Amino acid sequence: MTLSISPDDIRKQTISTQAKSPVSEEEMRQAVRTLLLGMGEDPDREGLRDTPKRVVKALKFLTSGYHQSLDELLNGAVFHEDANEMVLVRDIDLFSSCEHHILPILGRAHVAYIPNGKVIGLSKIARICEMYARRLQVQERLTAQIADAIQGLLKPQGVAVVVEATHMCMVMRGVQKPGSWTVTSSMQGVFADDAKTRQEFMDLIRHRPSFH
Ligand SMILES: Nc1nc2c(ncn2[C@@H]2O[C@H](COP(=O)(O)OP(=O)(O)OP(=O)(O)O)[C@@H](O)[C@H]2O)c(=O)[nH]1
Ligand SMILES: [Zn+2]
After folding, report:
1. All structural domains of the chain
2. Alpha carbon of residue 90 to chain centroid
3. Which of this chain's residues are annotated to bind Zn(2+) (predicted)?
4. Phi, psi for 163 (deg, rounded to 5)
5. How far is the centre of ligand 1, averaged over its atoms, from the C-alpha of 44 (Å)?
6. DSSP secondary-structure letter at 111?
7. Would you state the pLDDT for residue 210?
C-alpha cells in the first residue's frame, strides 16, 4: 500500500480532530457517576467520591493525542541529510485504547524508513506513535497513521511500521484469550516494492541486541 499524503493533508487531518469538546468536565463526571450507579455501586462512598474526577482526568490523558498536532510535536526536528540507509526505531512501547470497548491496547511499534534527503529526530518517531496511540483506535488504523505521518513529513524512499499488541478486550472479557497478540504492518515505497528491503527490516526487528 503506497500512500502519498502531504504534510498539509496530515495537518488538516489533525486539526479536524481538535474541535473543542461540546461536553463540559462536569457533564463527563456526571456520566461516570451514572456508570458507577449502573454497576450497582454507591458513588458517594468514600473510596469512590473522587472517582468520576479521576476517571475523566485519566480518559482525557489517554485521548490527549486528539489535541496534539504533528507541527507542535516535531518542533522543527526534520533535518536535511544525505543518509540513504535504513533508520529503524524498534520496541517503542505503546499504550492505546480500543475504540470498541475503551479498553487498553498494550504493545510495541517498530518504525523504519529509508531517507530521501531528510531525516527526523529519533525521539519524534516515538512521539508520533504516542500521539496516535493516545486516541481511540483500531490497531490497523494506528499502524497506518504512523506510517502515513512519516511518509508525508519526509517523503522517504520507503516506510515500514509493525505494531505488535495485545487487546484487553480480548483478554479480560469477550473471547478471553490471554497470550494472544495481533501483528499489523504498513509497508510503503521500497518496503512494499522490494522483498529484500522488507526482509532486512523484518530481520532487524527480530535481532537480539548485544546490550539486552
Ligand atoms: N480489526 C480490529 N478489531 C478490533 C480491534 N480492537 C477490538 N477489535 C474487535 O472489534 C470487534 C467488535 O465486535 P462486536 O461483536 O461488535 O463486539 P463484542 O460483542 O464486544 O465482541 P467480542 O469481543 O467478540 O465479545 C471484536 O471482534 C474485537 O475483537 C482492532 O484494533 N482491530
Ligand atoms: Zn476492544
Report:
1. 7-15+69-206 (3.30.1130.10), 19-64 (1.10.286.10)
2. 14
3. 98, 101, 169
4. -120, 130
5. 33
6. E
7. 80
pTM of the model: 0.90
pLDDT score at 20? 73
Is 207 annotated in the active site? no
The verdict on whether 30 is a catalytic residue reads no
Rounded CA gap, 132 and 142, in Å? 6
In this prediction, residue 212 carries a pLDDT of 66
The phi, psi pair for 19, rounded to 5°, reads -55, 140
Atom of ligand 1 nearest to the CA of 98: 6
- DSSP E strands: which ranges in the chain? 78-80, 87-98, 104-114, 118-120, 136-137, 158-167, 182-189
**Residue 208 pLDDT exceeds 80:** yes
Q: Find where cell 527480530 sits.
A: 206
